[in-house]
Specification:
32% helix, four-stranded mixed sheet, Rossmann fold
Length: 202
C-alpha cells in the first residue's frame, strides 16, 4: 500500500459538500490529516519512516533495518521487554547501555505539530537521551498520534495513576536541526527510524 497516495486525493469542491459528509466518512479523513502532518514534519526533521499495516510488516521492516545497518542481536538494547512480545521481535537483549549500537523502544505519543516523539521514564527510565546510542528504532502505532505536545501531556496525565517522570521529546534526527522546545532542549540528535503500525482511530 502506498500510504502517501491518500494525502493527495481530490478534495471536495466546496465546503457545503464537505459538511454534508457523514460522520463515519469524516473520521478517517480526520485521521489521515493528522497522519499526514506528523509524517511530513517527521521526515522534514530527518527521521526515517516505515508504515506497516500489520505485525508481519513490523517484523519484516525491523529485520530490514537491522540488516541494512549490519547490526547483530548483541548490538540491540531493549529496556521494555513488552516490546519484544507485543511485536514478536526476534532479537536478544543487549545488557550494556555503553556498548549498544541501537536502542529499540516504544513512545508515549507522536506529535503531529512538529513531528517529534514524546517519551518518558516508561521508555528511558531516568537516563538522559545522550546516554543512549546514536541509533534509535521506535515502534509505535497510529493511536499514539496527537496534534500538540500539550495534548500528549494531557493524555499521559489522564491515563496514568502514577505520572511518569523524565518526560522529553526527540525532535532532532540530524545535526542541522536546532529548533528545540523546552522539552527537547539539550538533547542530542539521533539517527531515528520510526516503524508505525496502522491501528483503529479512537
Amino acid at each position: 500500500m502506498n500510504f502517501f497516495s491518500k494525502f493527495f486525493k481530490n478534495k471536495p469542491q466546496d465546503k457545503n459538500q464537505e459538511n454534508e459528509e457523514k460522520e463515519g466518512e469524516f473520521l478517517p479523513k480526520k485521521k489521515a490529516v493528522i497522519e499526514e502532518r506528523f509524517i511530513l514534519k517527521f521526515i522534514e526533521n530527518g527521521g526515517k519512516f516505515l508504515y506497516c499495516e500489520n505485525i508481519d510488516e513490523v517484523q519484516k521492516n525491523f529485520e530490514l533495518i537491522i540488516q541494512e545497518n549490519e547490526w547483530t542481536d548483541q548490538d540491540i538494547l531493549i529496556i521494555n521487554k513488552e516490546i519484544k512480545s507485543t511485536y514478536k521481535l526476534k532479537t536478544e537483549f543487549k545488557s550494556s547501555l555503553e556498548e549498544a549500537e541501537c536502542f529499540v523502544t516504544d513512545c508515549e505519543n507522536l506529535i503531529a505539530g512538529d513531528g517529534s516523539i514524546l517519551i518518558s521514564s516508561n521508555q528511558i527510565h531516568e537516563k538522559k537521551l545522550d546516554n543512549f546510542p546514536e541509533n534509535f528504532i521506535i515502534i509505535s502505532d497510529t493511536r499514539k498520534l496527537k496534534n500538540t505536545i500539550s495534548e500528549g501531556l494531557s493524555e499521559i496525565k489522564s491515563k496514568s495513576n502514577n505520572i511518569p517522570t523524565n518526560i522529553t521529546t526527540i525532535k532532532n534526527f540530524n545535526n542541522t536541526n536546532e529548533d528545540n522546545n523546552f522539552l527537547s532542549y539539550g538533547t542530542s540528535s539521533k539517527n531515528l527510524y520510526l516503524i508505525l503500525l496502522e491501528k483503529g482511530f479512537n
